[in-house]
Amino acid sequence: MHAVGGLALLRAQCLARIADVAGAMSLEALKGTPAAFDLRLQEVRPHPGQKAVAKHLLSLMEDSEIRQSHVKGDPHVQDAYSLRCMPQVHGAVRGALTHCEDVLLIESASATDNPLVFADSGEVISGGNFHGAPLAFAFDYAAIGIVDLMNMSERRIDRLVNPDKNEGLSAFLARKPGVESGFMIAQVAAASLVNEARVLAHPASADNITTSGGKEDHVSMGMTSALKLRSIVDLAENLLAIELLTAAEGLQHRRPLKAGAGVEQAFAVVREIAPPLTHDRALSGDIARVAEAIRRGDFDGEDEKS
Fold first, then answer.
1. Reduced to 3 states, what is the DSSP secondary structure of residue 148?
2. Do residues 1 and 222 lie in contact, with contact meaning Cβ atoms separated by under 8 Å?
3. What letter would DSSP give residue 298?
4. pLDDT tens digits, residue range 161-200?
5. β-strands 116-118, 123-125 pairing
6. 33 alpha carbon, distance to own chain's centre
7. Concatenated DSSP letters of 98-138
8. Alpha-carbon distance 97 to 139, whole Å?
9. Does residue 89 come out as left (phi exceeding 0), alpha (psi in the -120 to 50 range) or beta?
10. Which terminus of the chain is more solvent-facing, meaning fewer CB atoms within 10 Å of its CB: N or C?
11. Which domains does the chain have, with CATH numbers?
12. 182: closest CA among 281, 274, 290, 285?
């Protein structure tokens, strides 16, 4: 449980930052505004994760030509929640993952055998330090947070491909709308990934089945929590890969205007893996390769500035 859940938690923490990168890329492609990331807004609701995400998003969008192209005469007062509320939601996920990391650090330095022998007194004491509740709760909490990141990401993907919402981009980002599918099926795949993750997000720690003749009458189900978290992280890596690919295609349609410096770095990483979608092709290979790049840390160069 410790190993499975701990490794999944490390991957989840990386995903929280990648979600910022993908979200910033989507916002640029949708000609959104970074006004909601103004640090003064974050200071009056000073959750550490919220402040860190806002700062990260602003740094990713620094010197954006796309933003400058619609500063004047922009009819939009504010963006949809999936864009505007990234500091609040992504930040809350960071807070959840930080709490889970704290639990894991305490657990990794703890004595959990039973009974325990205390050398100073020679006493042998039977207790319950083996109980997995702290870890089970933490892994379930992390899973819920990552699934909400996925919820936000899928909504941004939908906005990118939906001609009613995508700020003048072609329908489904196809070069020949009506004839080609573009990223239509990619969004369908994203919806499927989110659905599976939502089912897995039900907390295993809420369950209990008595074992050992009634002596173990309350168990944590923490191993199930750890395995579910690992599965959810796998799904999230593929979902964020879809958003990165879709947002990159949106930026392609905004050329020759360029996005912010950090977004452009991430765009370049995507383009090293997958060429633009000039005609319909299977995207499964591109998704798998970008997901692998996420796991390798290829997008780590877009991390927060110190």
1. helix
2. yes
3. T
4. 999 999 999 999 999 999 999 999 999 999 999 999 999 9
5. antiparallel
6. 21
7. HHHHHHHHHHHTS---SSEEETTTTEEE---TT--HHHHHH
8. 9
9. alpha
10. C
11. 2-302 (1.20.200.10)
12. 281
